[in-house]
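Quick note —
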Amino acid sequence: MVRAAITFVCGLFAVVLAFQIILVLAEANPDNGFASFIDGFSGAVSLGFDGLFAPDSDKAAVLFNYGAAALVWLLIGAALNYLVRRFALPAPRPPQA
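Predicted structure written out below.
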């Protein structure tokens, strides 16, 4: 159950960042409620990757910065799931004869 929660949260953060990339590339109206919510949420979960890459295009900057943050969230989720599986779950019992 803990692993499912980790997967859900990290996946949700990666999906929000992907939505932000799509909205920026599609030039969505930033005054729209949904676009505004996604912009605020993605800024909160970007892990400080805002401004890491500074290409000439604003669209490329969002793609690289938020794309990198989304990949890092997926890696964090995989690493946490591995650690939980490796150290927190009981070892399998040998078969009884």
